[in-house]
Design goal:
single chain; alpha/beta; inorganic pyrophosphatase (n-terminal core); Diaminopimelate Epimerase, Chain A, domain 1; six-stranded mixed sheet; five-stranded parallel sheet; about 20% strand; globular; binds manganese (II) ion
Length: about 325
């Protein structure tokens, strides 16, 4: 694990133009982390631009700074690229070439599969969220976290711990969340924005996706499948599926939940959630993917029955 904390603090103090990015299809931790860092650097009087490959999900648009994210930028105008919550440069998607233009790349992440990119890295798989690492950096800098930064860090921790359901809900995660509440975050207001703002069509899509439920491998693996047609029928984009995998995960006796999502070009995006015993990052890695012990994903080419057979074989091996 790389821990260049003090060098990263020095760079954040001394440099003045930062280009910040995260992984494609960003969620709460990725966005909360990059916005928290950008807002803090701006308050220090620096230029900090958040450059993302994909739009911010609707339920996270309330986050302070969300409106300042850009989707096209020339990386050569910056001294430092900061990549957060992202295990490898390719995972930043189409913005990767811009992130390679600044002379220095800083990598702040908690994915076990992080390849250690960047001239400086703070990578800690024990951290519940990248937001926890942003908190570590700002605290080490002696920077007083304000309410706007606190809200972003809180959402990063809240979402990556599954609202403190998952095994990564460490003492540090609770401690950081508690500190953010002391700094003015309203837990109920945030929960309402993040979790209780869905549309009726999304709930109908959930009904369709749940009708695909399969329970396999002796009840230890629960599976949902979403075809492109399912999204099209409800006028939904793939980010509408965020969180659906928690339903199969909630079945008694299920150790692993799997979601298959059909993509263009004969590919399936496969997401895994483990209740803890099985390390699903190992399974995802076998198909060229990655992630954490409890949450991982990969992309598998082929027809659906064949893709499922391969994935179930790998899961069977991991379970035995
Ligand atoms: Mn994360």
């Amino acid at each position: 694990m790389k821990d260049d904390l003090s060098s990263i603090c020095r760079v954040f103090r001394e440099e003045d133009r930062f280009l910040i990015a995260c992984h494609e299809n960003p969620e709460g931790d990725a966005i909360g982390s990059e916005l928290a860092l950008a807002l803090a650097l701006r308050r220090m009087g620096k230029t900090a631009t958040v450059l993302n490959a994909d739009p911010i999900p609707e339920n996270l648009m309330f986050l302070p700074g969300a409106g300042t994210v850009v989707f096209h930028e020339d990386g050569s105008k910056y001294n430092v690229a900061v990549v957060v919550d992202c295990g490898s440069p390719e995972r930043t998607g189409r913005v990767e070439p811009e992130l390679r233009k600044p002379p220095l790349m800083v990598n702040i992440d908690h994915h076990r599969t992080n390849g250690g990119m960047g001239g400086l890295a703070l990578v800690d798989p024990e951290a519940a969220a990248t937001g926890v690492l942003i908190h570590r950096v700002l605290t080490a800098m002696g920077w007083e976290i304000d309410r706007d930064v606190a809200e972003n860090i809180y959402v990063a921790v809240l979402t990556d711990t599954g609202s403190f359901h998952y095994g990564n809900s460490s003492p540090e995660a609770f401690q950081v969340a508690g500190e953010m509440i002391r700094r003015g975050v309203d837990p109920w207001a945030v929960a309402e924005q993040v979790y209780e703002t869905q549309s009726a069509s999304r709930l109908r899509l959930l009904g369709r996706v749940l009708s695909s439920l399969e329970v396999v491998l002796g009840g230890r693996v629960a599976v949902i499948t979403t075809l492109r047609a399912d999204l099209a029928d409800f006028g939904s984009a793939k980010d509408a599926l965020e969180g659906f995998i928690n339903y199969p995960r909630s079945i008694q006796g299920a150790e692993v939940a799997v979601s298959f999502r059909e993509e263009d070009g004969g590919l399936f995006r496969v997401s895994f959630r483990s209740k803890g015993r099985v390390d699903v990052s190992v399974v995802a890695l076998r198909f060229g993917g990655g992630g954490h012990r409890n949450a991982a994903g990969c992309t598998v080419p082929g027809a659906l029955p064949e893709v499922k057979r391969k994935v179930f074989d790998a899961l069977g091996a991991a379970l035995s």
